[in-house]
Amino acid sequence: MGKGFYISKSVGVVAIILGAGALATIIALSVVYSQEKAKNNDNVLPTDGGSTKPPVTTPAPSNNPWDKYRLPKSLVPEIYHVTLWPRLTPDETNNLYIFTGNSTVEFKCAEVTDLILIHSNKLNYTKLENNHLARLTSVNGDKAPSITKSWLEPLTQYLVLQLDGKLSKDHQYQLFTEFTGELADDLGGFYRSEYWENGERKVVATTQMQPTDARKAFPCFDEPAMKAIFHITLIHDAGTVALSNGAEIRKESWAKKIPSYPTSTMIFKLMNVYIMSLGNVFSSVYFMMWVQVRIFARKPAIAAGQGDYALNITGPILKFFEKYYSSKYPLPKSDQIALPDFNAGAMENWGLITYRETALLYDEEFSSNSNKQRIATIIAHELAHMWFGNLVTLRWWNDLWLNEGFASYVEYLGADEAEPDWNVKDLIVLSDVHRVFAVDALASSHPLSSKEEDIQKPAQISELFDAISYSKGASVLRMLSDFLTEEVFTLGLQTYLERFAFKNTVYTDLWKHLQMAVTANGTKLPDTVHNIMNTWVLQMGFPVVTINTTTGVVSQEHFLLDPDSEVTTPSQFNYQWIVPIKWMKTGIIQTPEWLTEKSASGEDWVLANLNVVGYYRVNYDVNNWRKLLTALSTNHEAIPVINRAQLVDDAFNLARAKIIPTVLALDTTKYLSREREYMPWDSAIGNLDFFFLMFDRSEVYGPIQDYLREQVTYLFRYYKNMTDSWTKVPNGHMDQYNQVNAISLACRTGLEECQNLTMGWFTQWMHTEINPIHPNLRSTVYCNAIAAGGAAEWEFAWSKFKNATIAIEADKLRYALACTKQPWLLNRYLEYTLMPEMIRKQDATSTIVYIANNVIGQSLAWDFVRARWSYIFSEYGGGSFSFSNLINGVTERFSTEFEIQQLRQFKEDNAEVGFGSGTLAVDQSIERTIANMKWIAENKDTVLKWFNDQNKA
Ligand SMILES: *[C@@H]1O[C@H](CO)[C@@H](O)[C@H](O)[C@H]1NC(C)=O
Ligand SMILES: *[C@@H]1O[C@H](CO)[C@@H](O)[C@H](O)[C@H]1NC(C)=O
Ligand SMILES: *[C@@H]1O[C@H](CO)[C@@H](O)[C@H](O)[C@H]1NC(C)=O
Ligand SMILES: *[C@@H]1O[C@H](CO)[C@@H](O)[C@H](O)[C@H]1NC(C)=O
Ligand SMILES: *[C@@H]1O[C@H](CO)[C@@H](O)[C@H](O)[C@H]1NC(C)=O
Ligand SMILES: [Zn+2]
Questions:
Q1: Most buried of 302, 481, 572, 684 (most Cβ within 10 A)?
Q2: How far apart are CA 866 and CA 323, in angstroms?
């Protein structure tokens, strides 16, 4: 698609109207990390909205409607009128940041009832008539029943109203409430984010509603199928900016009404309850196409042009999706805003997407090509959701995988549109397929699809936001699109979106529409889309397909990383899949087939799963493996580059599963001295990482280092030559990535020339204050220099971190600071992770994981997490998405009897506190540790011998 269709910036720029010169400059008196205070005390707020909860006689779970997590079907919301007024300075009496608001929700009674349940969490209500927490009126003019009791249910998060009579079926009612909430820094609901600008503290009020925190901002029917029309009014200081999902309808000045508090109102209209968001403050760039596209961020970031890249690519990507979906962008505007504090990567609020700064802001001087790719793919991911997820929404969270898997697949298509030279679509194999294979090969994995009734509590919903939903979902949808062909896939997708626009679906609705497309097109399949996909969606795991070229037999079995692990979940398909197979023979692509019990044999080598479009691993008989190894070492380019990465990854994992010998896997690395491509190298480094993790505390470490240093030296020299002794940047996106691998592995394995190079650059930076290091190389150069250096290097990097003006640079430093070999620096750094003025809350868990990755930091990080678990858990939110990363991260190296005992003890000790979204990760860690112990016992001697043999040769 040409780039000419949108108006160039100079034409399109409209006055920046947002009072940018007069942004709120708020200096808070003191920082109150008030969630701490508010803990276990929902009535800490100043208003008198205490509950009038009736005495509970039965403490055991009862059958009352308000004890259930799902809403009854009796009431259906239609229109909300919500007014919110966030205070960007702390309340004088108790030093808390608060917001006040009121809401009128109009709903229809679908089933006769005398009970109103509406979600509400951590809100305090003003008592209205007769001391009740709400007022009910009838829309039709007849008299509404009276409220007899009203109270809050903190566990199930309801406001409950008992009525003295029944609501009539099909009649409409209005429920009015007035409430106060805390504008805490807890990254959930209506919350606040802070940053410094020219020595002044700035406060932003923003939201993260998904999945279950809209109820923390105002009372609402907080389920994805409860779509409604929202009229949002925001009251805010003159000189600040208010944004909402919809376009602004009206602006009113309140200055006259409340003379002491000059404010203005903004009214927005929007739909869809779980994806609402409000921003405040910020400057903006303004850009016109057929929709209005704007990027918001801190004022200096916009002034420095850091929003330009996002602005440049949003138009083409939106255009791409309009074509892909055959559906116009459903809203008049598309705002994207970068927030200093944000837990996830981004959130697809309809028409107002929120991002971490690193996921939206690009600066040529500071951003690496990997940062740039992340921005392009995340923007594409979120824009994809504007249709798939927002226009059409899955009915309940159990189908989350389809929503996230889909966006995680098409993000590559959208990014490819914006950056056609990158070959970014190939990278899904490393970032999603191979990544999730590691998790999905465990007996503790779970199927993509969950039963609706199994997903009830907010923590259960949060747990679904995992690698299975995102990466496996993306992988199987890519496979589906491939075997249907993109033409048929998009045809089905288009009718699905058309049919269900503004409605809700279940995942089988998509299969139905794809089947219609298959029928219309006459595509031949071995079974229906529904039946084929069920084998991938309803059972966990994936197959290893074995092609035995001596017998010609092709077979499949459930691939388990630990062959001794026990699969306790039965599968209706007995862990058999309907497998599409693309393959080649001695470099010649063959006609694709579906797995049957007979196939290839003969003299040629056979290679299956071309470009890894299938979600499975492949094994061969020893003869064919040998032929493939020969092909790699004589003419590796006869094998497509993605499949070279696959051969390495499959071999290492098959070896872990004891399907092939470990030495055969190691043999796949011997050709690397001739390999120059990124994907195979990255695959090898990823797999060898496991050897580092298992052996970097043992005598095998030295021989591994010697072997890899030898292999990588060729690559290092190749890039030195290509870059004219490190003075130029390689042209290709993949080459830029592989240059980083070359330097990183060369330095890590102790190549002196590399260490001199990186230390030289860093020292030059320290002495001259001018940073000579290209952004692509910064993470790895900083890390190596800090590892080789001492306190001076660390302190220098820390001061650069604290003063960084762009989050992307700060992130690189934050990562590198974890590389020091000094235990005292690491321990102090760990302490910093729980001090939000040192390390932002959103970055705490990843920083701890970085430290744990360091062999010196591993045990320090584990001790730290164990000792502070209940604090981390309560302070960093049970609904946060990163607990599984934290637990998996700090236990990754575990491989001893002693460590497994500690892990079990940890699980037992904290059973009461819980693990939230990390619950599954605890079990996965235990399983992984057991597997590691066995693996070391069985492999250490052979591995040591293999590396010694290579080094002698
Ligand atoms: C809601 O609050 C705003 C601001 O305090 C007020 O102007 C408005 O009248 C309130 N709405 C109702 C229905 O009371
Ligand atoms: C954005 O696009 C303009 C016009 O094509 C170009 O000059 C500019 O370099 C681009 N900016 C970025 C950061 O890509
Ligand atoms: C392939 O078939 C031969 C002959 O039956 C058998 O010995 C060998 O173990 C098989 N290899 C694999 C990987 O299944
Ligand atoms: C460096 O690159 C040039 C041109 O690509 C090539 O001719 C030369 O042989 C290379 N030198 C080394 C040492 O690899
Ligand atoms: C690395 O630096 C040291 C000290 O400056 C020097 O002696 C050595 O020759 C350098 N090594 C290489 C390979 O450049
Ligand atoms: Zn998403």
A1: 684
A2: 51
